Amino acid sequence: MVVGVVKEIKPEENRVALTPAGVAALVGHGHEVWVERRAGVNSGLGDREYEEAGARLARSAQDVWRRAELLLKVKEPLPSEYRFLRRGLVLFTYLHLAANPELTQELCRRGVRAIGYETVELDDGSLPLLAPMSEVAGRLAIQVGAWCLQKQSGGVGILLSGASGVRPGKVVVLGAGTAGSNAAQIAFGLGAHVSVIDANPAKLRYLHDILGGHITTVMSNRANIEEEVRSADLLIGAVLVPGARAPRLVTRSMVRKMRPGSAIVDISIDQGGCVETSRPTTLEEPTYVAENVVHYCVTNMPSIVPRTSTFALTNATFAYALEIADKGMMRALRENRPLRRGVNVFDGHVVHPAVATAVGVPQVPIEDLLE
Questions:
Q1: pLDDT, tens only, 331-368
Q2: Which end of the chain is more exposed for a tag (fewer CB within 10 A), N or C?
């Protein structure tokens, strides 16, 4: 199979979808790999490394898109890339289609077979290809949130750890999944007062236990959310419903009651955000102020640390990409149930139920199309 890797064009997106080691493994299995020149440079991976691993270097993204049967990316195609989409192309990347009906329509219209990293789901409900970036984003959320609280960033000027004789800042984490639990652990490590809200008591119990009972765990309901948000210096939004739009759990009126100069980091922004006042931002202009609260809603937070993120991501995605290349799309989907669950769009049809609901179109089961 011909596998293609392009340089990401989303503003300040520095990750790359395949490392030289991944290229070497694919070539070793008899596949042809085309990599756009300088695709990995922002992750510290030079063209020579890719060439030595057996990749063929392409001068343009168009050349890679044209040749590839399987196209590996990190982020969803942007409008300038829509013209490269074509029938039968297998696209394997983060898609987040629930918040992007325009892209969903384009993928259907052009007959692309699109698999979202974020919707590949194991039998136990876990999301193995979303987990590494959720881990990175959760850890970064406290780092960037602390920056947002600084006076020069528009914040009130609170040090999360506090100081001798001064109370620490309060961090409220909405969601106890991978991103939320990592955010809570980093906030606790800094010495902040930490509250975590979730609807799943088992997750709250686990997080409470691993942190020795030193955080506050709260069951999710409107009254509890309102109370915790009001007292937060830093609110982390880390709510996820696989494939679906994130539920808006924090209303504008709740944000209005927060202390002026407090901060919100909405990790859920890729799926539309879980805070009513959230809107997507970029690393070029990461923050804005709404209701006197600093908001950080960057849709590709892990790109801040691209080398770590690239290796963490490809460690998780490579085995699936190799299976598609070795077996072909149809056989790989028939034999690999988690991968089959990851398909969002297939030959003009929306096949993922949560995506179909979010964008308001009928869902066609992938099993019907594989027959």
A1: 999 999 999 999 999 999 999 999 999 999 999 999 99
A2: C
Nearest residue to 170 via CA among 266, 262, 253: 262
Q: Which residues are catalytic?
A: 96, 270
What order do you get walking across the sheet with 343-346 strand by strand? 56-58, 32-36, 2-5, 70-72, 90-93, 113-116, 343-346, 349-350
CA distance 265 to 39: 29
**pTM for the whole structure:** 0.90
What is the spatial distance between Cα 238 and Cα 197, in angstroms, rounded to a whole number?
Answer: 10
Residue 281's domain spans which residues?
A: 134-304
End-to-end CA distance of the chain: 22
Q: Is residue 129 part of a domain?
A: no
Q: How far apart are CA 151 and CA 1, in angstroms?
A: 53
Q: Which residues are registered as beta bridge partners of 343?
A: 115
- 274 and 249 co-located in one domain: yes
Asked which of 282, 304, 326 is the last residue of a domain, the reply is 304
CA–CA distances in Å: residue 171 to residues 82, 237, 294: 40, 11, 14
pLDDT tens-digit series, residues 228-249:
999 999 999 999 888 889 999 9
81 and 169 share a domain? Answer: no
Residue at 25: amino acid letter = A
Question: Do you know the residue count of the chain?
Answer: 371
* CATH number of the domain to which 101 belongs: 3.40.50.720
